[in-house]
């Protein structure tokens, strides 16, 4: 994008917006290329306000009709954009507004995400270099076979013991809490209800020792490339995020905010290369069972880590089919930038869904959002 069209500081224009328009019926591939080219070449400004076309994708509308999606940046009103686009296509297609946001809306590439987030065997670049560039661009990637089947079984055994111990302590020391129904936030465990839990593992626990002795050692060179040296620049928190049968869909969220004083990608479509601050924290999700539609999984919005203005727009990612479903096998790892938007999908199975979470963060960052200050075993106050 030629940022000069908006002056020397195009990042702070108060009326700038990203608009997403949909064209139906969905044209054939060749016609779609011609239509995009026509739109992008002929609609360069509206009422003297520049228009910058950004990307395109496809999705199904509420009637499940295939739709061509085009995104653009402008200070022109949405009504004027729709009017000009409708006049240009001269009745061949219908044109409607699908969404608008105060940041560039990431769309799914027409070829999908799989080949982007999972490293090809033909990729000759060192894994740590591929991982660095992928998480910078998309905010996540998948690492296959991080743990063997035997290691998964051993780690799952440790984790299930920790879950049993924590819930036993809750029943003993906090009998008034309805586990899985009530909100709670202790030093050791937190839950927002709805059968979802986040249990912090103590450094001395067998599960945490396993993570340091096996997992951290295996990935230390990748961590160094992406975020820093373990124990010198970054440290780790280890927890298990588990969902019980009946847990519903979670709301869209990011685990961490864009930090004060840091840069997001701004209005430049290549801003993730040139402006976006490096991650201050990242997570590894390692499922301890195979994840599918019944057990549920974590759904991500790739590239949503780029702009702080996307917070609250997760439901739009669903509508425009910009999401990626983390249906992984036990022992695989999903790495993601702490700023990336995601949500847990319902557990409609009869099985507990335990996912090990390793939070790797710069030492100056302290996680305060998920846990409380009081221990389960502290004297309960009325």
TrEMBL record:
Q: Which Gene3D superfamilies match?
A: q2cbj1_9rhob like domain
Q: Which SUPFAM superfamilies match?
A: Clavaminate synthase-like
Q: Mind telling me what this protein is named?
A: Phytanoyl-CoA dioxygenase
